[in-house]
Amino acid sequence: MSKMQVHRGGSDHSDPRAAVADLRRQIGGPGIGFALVFCSPRYDLGQIAEAVAAEFGDTPVYGCTTAGEITPFGYISGGISGIGFPEGDFSVAATLFEDLKAFEIGATIERTRLLMAERDGCAPTADSFGLLLVDGLSVREEQLVSAIGNTLGGTPLVGGSAGDGLDFKRSFVFFRDRFATDAAILLLISTRRRFSVFKTEHFVPTEEKMVVTGADLARRRVYEINAEPAALEYARLVGLDGEALSPKIFAAHPVVVRVGGQYHVRAIQKVNPDNSLTFLCAIDEGLVLTVAEGVDLIENLKELFGRLEREIGRPDLIIGCDCVLRNIEIDERALKHAVSSLFVEHRVVGFCTYGEQYMSMHVNQTFTGVAIGAA
Questions:
Q1: pLDDT at residue 2 above 80?
Q2: What span, in angstroms and rounded, lies between the C-alpha atoms of 102 and 15?
Q3: Band of the pLDDT at 1, cuts 50, 70, 90?
């Protein structure tokens, strides 16, 4: 295997140490400058951290927990995926944001500027992109991605929110040698290779509108829609009056909001006992939501991969952040094999998220990431 080739790997070993050792054999070794690792929260994370330190040594490793993993052999659940970047073609400047509950915009902007200066000192002639991994239960993605994305200026930003399966209890990012919660990682990855950042979704708006009339912005919780209990009114508007709501329903019947002339999904995480709805994105009173309907997901992906190949040639790697609600829908519609085959063919490695970051926005129910060309 060429030293200049990006190394992609994955393992479904149930033992954490064996899984990391298996992954390191695929993506580690001499000539690797840094690595990304995405792992299931089902593992003992302390053992994962110890194994990463033992297996990767001085090689910097960054990553997060997932709601599913994307490997060189397709989707898995309960395993680990990763990428090794050859130091001859890539360099990285990285920082860890902790204590997100005490988020301060000024401090975030200053940290981002310092990281940009570090990047410019290491790779002054290379282009770069930002990769932002955020605790998916921090409820801070909007503030963080807006502050960072606007500070980065012409540097494109993509990323994903760390997951916790479908438990929605605790999610973690991984920075060098430890897992952290209520935290985020910003990586500025420099390369002379061609690359293209992207975002795609397979929904179009309908004529059915709803207005948020009661909400708690800090908790992303909607109590009333059209002055009615939120869950009951949502169910009525999507034609499921009287049915039990679940992640499968939310995946198949998303709502979207119009921002800057474009529609973006505002994904629903769960229904609460009081018939309120908790969202995975910012939500507030007065917001007009539109019920959306799906188009062909497979054709949407084929169009995306075709466009990326026209832009940069056949990718050596696509870092993919795939929303967990897309994954649920793909399972429900028996499309897992077809999507996995497309991901394998186009060299996608990444994870299933609790939301995605794109430029200066936090979005939901998208497939987002960056395609990197061959050396």
A1: no
A2: 36
A3: very low
